[in-house]
Amino acid sequence: MMNQRPPRFNAHLLQGQSKIPIEAQYASRFSLLIRFFNGFPSDQAAEFNKIVFQQNGDKIEMGPCEYIVEPHDQHFQGRLVFNQAVYDLNSLFFKDKLEKLQGEFSNLPLILAHKSKIKAAFKEFTANLTYDLTIYKNIFDSLDARFADEPAPIKHKVQTAIIETEGRKFMRFLDQKLDEFENLIINYSRKDHERHGFYLRKQLWHFLMCAPFMARTNLKPRGYSGDSVMMKMLYDNRYEGDSTFARLMHKHPNEHPAAQAVRNRRQLISEMLGHLKSGRPPSSGNKLRVLSVACGPAFELQDVLTSAEDCAKFHFTLLDQDKSALSEAASLLARLEKKYGAEVEVDLLNESVRTMLTTPKLDTMWGKFDYIYSMGLFDYLTPPVAKAVLTKLFQILRPGGEMVIGNFHISNPSRFYMEYWLDWVLYYRTEQEFIDLLKNVTSAESRVLFEDTGSQMFLHVRNTER
Amino acid sequence: MKKSIEFNIKPDWDEIEKVRNESAEFLQSHDLSDDTIHSLSMIISELIENGIKYGDFKMVADKVVVVINLERNTVTIEVFNPVDESALKHLSRLDRTIQWIRGYQDPFEAYINRIKEVSQKPLQDNESGIGLVRIAYEGNALLDFFVGDNNLLNVSVVSNLDGDDRNPS
Ligand SMILES: C[S@@+](CC[C@H](N)C(=O)[O-])C[C@H]1O[C@@H](n2cnc3c(N)ncnc32)[C@H](O)[C@@H]1O
């Protein structure tokens, strides 16, 4: 954004009845540089009712405002700042939105009132939890301060010692609190869950924000949960964060069953692809054609491609809605190609499954596949969409081909931890609901498998056509 | 008793009221509470309105199709209409909006954010999407969509029925 030339334009200032022509230029988020045209005294401060100008065909009026003398450069004479409603000039000039800084307060009554529907027991639980977390944080922070000046390797050793001792005890404390919390909300309706989750996150906000994983799942900088950065954190399962407390808060959800299930499913896919490459020969003497739908950064490929021969066996088609995820997958493949001195055939498709079906004749465009898998996608698709996508995927599975689709099971023990703390909501299914997604497709032979934690299911489908 | 009902309507604003009334009768016959029927009707109107607005109805046979399906714990409402290539940009935005709304555990959060944005008046009206947020927040329903064969757009909501969504028997 800041690479663009700052917008410069003509405007006028209103002061009582007079209209003073000026030249103005965007200077900072909350100020403009200005120059008076008609000899208006530029060496003393002045106040104006408003500034008026045209932008993209709209008449913009903002004020009241104040002139501050600032012999800035050869051209401009000073700055204009707003002294009541404070307008965000970044929004105005770069997003075409007229926003006041105070706009943040516009929903205040609604948000404050939201707490009136929170149950007393939940408020008490949250207050106690906040107290306990504050105490823990204070202690961990004060320990951090005491070893802050140590040389890096020593600091690391000391922090590890603290994590392994009191840190692990703190993690058990969190487990206990989560048990209490689950008992409290077990009979809540969906609406109750939503409201109480909102309340909990507001109360715990600062604790959540210090943990990189929790901050990201809550803030969703790419607009959705489960982006490639979150996935990497899940796969790495390390202590990450700026302080000992932050590292513990980051690690805790990464050790929960749902996170383990994500790591398990990666292994499962790697094993299945490994099996495929050593098993039956590919359909037409060519490469094994594999499609990963919602591939993300496709980390599993580094488990599958472990030699030049492996690289030669596959043709991958990787589909994701997110360009950044696809380019991460591409760089991973480039690294593997370099490592093994071999080329990997790959097509990258930047599409959403919701709109991919508009691609005419998907099978002639993309070809048919020996193996299709999709992990971490169906958890976001409601039944009408899941059915349509699955049916379409089945149509591009060659006879004898197999498809494996992941979906968290309704009994996911991390469900409420994810929903309330991480603001991460999935569409859960039972085995039957999962199987039923393909019930109208006669040549599909389906069964449901689970990984070790039991929280994630896989719909395994074979195309029985010959 | 029939568990589902289907309407085939012309892309005409006057048809909305008719579908609203008939679907309300259908939902009443299944003992859904007045509040629930009220919010489902809001959803139905909103979806049909969008269907008419963004649909591509070149042929006389091009209709808006509404299917309401009632199961023990869920109601699913699906609205189908044809779209042309020009709708694709709108659909990518719809995709992002839906993921954004559903990214919040509490749709209230999407609601207050969107209200804030609307109150800030974007200079170019880039479709507030407030209707979709209301579906999620007031209608307590999960929105989703896909484009199927023949460029038929399907926008759907799935709404869970809790105990108080039905009249006491
Ligand atoms: C939870 S991640 C899973 C990534 C990868 N499959 C894995 O298991 O590591 C979800 C991925 O789905 C992608 N995704 C979500 N909705 C999608 C859609 N409608 N179409 C295509 N990709 C989608 C996201 O961009 C993200 O990369």
Descriptive labels:
heterodimer, A: 466 residues, alpha+beta, Thrombin, subunit H, Rossmann fold, seven-stranded mixed β-sheet, 17 helices, 15 strands, 45% helix, globular, B: 169 residues, Heat Shock Protein 90, five-stranded antiparallel β-sheet, 5 helices, binds S-adenosylmethionine
Number of strands of chain B: 5
Please name the fourth-level CATH homologous superfamily of the largest domain in chain A: Vaccinia Virus protein VP39
The proportion of strand residues of chain A reads: 15-25%
Query: What structural class should be given to the helix and strand makeup of chain A?
Result: alpha+beta
* CATH topology (fold) name of the largest domain in chain A: Rossmann fold
CATH architecture of chain B: 2-Layer Sandwich
* Strand numbers in spatial order across the main sheet of chain B: 1-2-3-5-4
Beta-strand portion of chain B reads 15-25%
Give every kind of bound small molecule, once each: S-adenosylmethionine
Q: Specify the helix fraction band of chain A.
A: 40-55%
What helical percentage do the residues of chain B reach? 40-55%
CATH class descriptor of the largest domain in chain A:
Alpha Beta
Protein chains sharing the most extensive interface: A-B, 50 and 43 residues
> What is the topology, as strand order, of the major beta sheet of chain A?
4-7-8-3-2-1-5-6
User: Please, what is the oligomeric state?
Assistant: heterodimer
How would you sum up this structure, described in words?
The complex is a heterodimer of chains A (466) and B (169). Chain A folds into 3 domains: 8-109, Thrombin, subunit H, CATH 2.40.10; 118-255, no CATH class; 259-463, Rossmann fold. Chain A contains 17 helices and 15 strands. Chain A has helices spanning 89-95, 108-113, 120-147, 152-185, 190-210, 212-219, 228-236, 244-254, 257-278, 301-304, 308-313, 323-340, 353-356, 362-366, 383-395, 415-422, 431-436; strands at 8-15, 18-28, 31-36, 46-48, 50-55, 58-62, 65-69, 78-82, 288-293, 314-320, 345-350, 369-374, 397-408, 444-450, 456-463. In chain A, the strands form 2 sheets. In chain A, strands 4-7-8-3-2-1-5-6 form an 8-stranded antiparallel β-sheet. A 7-stranded mixed β-sheet of chain A has the order 11-10-9-12-13-15-14. The model of chain A has no long low-confidence stretch (mean pLDDT 94). Chain B is built from 5 helices and 5 strands. Chain B has a single domain (4-160), classed as 2-Layer Sandwich (Heat Shock Protein 90). In chain B, 44% of the residues lie in helices and 23% in strands. Chain B has helices spanning 13-29, 34-54, 87-102, 107-119, 130-137; strands at 4-9, 64-70, 74-82, 141-148, 152-160.
